[in-house]
Amino acid sequence: MSDAPRVLFWRHGRTAWNVEKRFQGQTDIGLDPVGHAQAERAGRLLATLGPDTILASDLKRAADTAGYLGHSSGVPVEFDKGLRERFGGSWEGLTATELAERWPERHARMDIPDGEDISEVGDRMTAAVDRGLARTPPGGLLVVVSHGAALRVGISRMLGVPDDRREILGPLSNCCWSVLQTRGDTWRLMEHNAASLPEPVVLSDDA
C-alpha cells in the first residue's frame, strides 16, 4: 500500500438557495430534500472507499452532508471553521442576477466589496487540510466536506495554481467531489467533479 495520502474534497448537497442562485457565503442554509437525498446516496458510495478522517465545515449544509458519510462509514465527523464558505458580506442572500445588475464589474471578477479576500480563504482552507492530514494515517484517506468557492480555492492552492487563476479549475456541482494525491512532494489532481467511483487509479505514468 502506498504511503501517499489522498484528500477527497466533497461539496455539500443542494440547498434552496442553490436552486434560486443566491449567494450563500456563511449564511447557515440547510439542505433541501434533494440535497439530503444526494448526500445520503453519495455518503453510501464514498463509505466504500474506507475514509480514515472526515473533516467538515460547521455550517449546517456541509455538516449534514458529512453526517451521511459518517453514518455509512462509522467514522466520526470532526468540524473545522476553517472550512467555511467565503464570507460574502452584503452579497449574501442576493441572486446572481441582482449581483450582476448592482456590481457588474465586481461580480464578473467575484470581487466582493465587503467580503472575505480570496487569499484569506486559501490560507484557512489549506491550514484546515493540514490539520486533517495530521490526523490521517500514512496512505490514508482524508475527506474534506466544504463549499463550492472555498473548495476551489483550496484545491487550486494545493495544486500550486495562483489564487487569481483559480477559475482554471471548473466548479464542483452539489454533492460532487475531487480527489488529490501526492507523488513525491507534489499534489496531483486525480478526479474532479465526480459523482461516481472510477476504476482504481494506479499512480504510474507508464503506458
Textual characterization of the structure:
This protein is α/β, with parallel strands linked by helices and 207 residues long. It has seven helices and six strands. The protein has a six-stranded mixed beta sheet with strand order 3-2-4-1-5-6, with helices on both faces. A hairpin with a 2-residue loop joins strand 5 and strand 6. The longest helix is centred in the middle third of the chain and has 17 residues, at 118-134. The chain is globular.
Quick overview:
36% of the residues lie in helices and 17% in strands. It has helices at residues 16-19, 33-47, 60-73, 96-102, 104-109, 118-134, 148-158, and strands at 6-11, 53-56, 77-79, 141-146, 177-183, 186-194.
Separation, N- and C-terminal Cα atoms: 21 Å
How many whole angstroms does the radius of gyration measure?
Answer: 17 Å
Average pLDDT figure:
93
N-to-C SSE series? Answer: EHHEHEHHHEHEE
Based on Cα principal axes, name the global outline. globular
Helix content bin: 25-40%
Number of helical elements = 7
Biggest sheet character? 6 strands, mixed
Oligomeric assembly: single chain
pLDDT under 50 segments (min length 5)? none
As a percent range, the share of strand residues is 15-25%
Helix and strand topology:
Layout: E1 6-11, H1 16-19, H2 33-47, E2 53-56, H3 60-73, E3 77-79, H4 96-102, H5 104-109, H6 118-134, E4 141-146, H7 148-158, E5 177-183, E6 186-194
Parallel strand pairs: 1-4, 2-3, 2-4
Antiparallel strand pairs: 1-5, 5-6
Helix pairs in contact: 2-3, 6-7
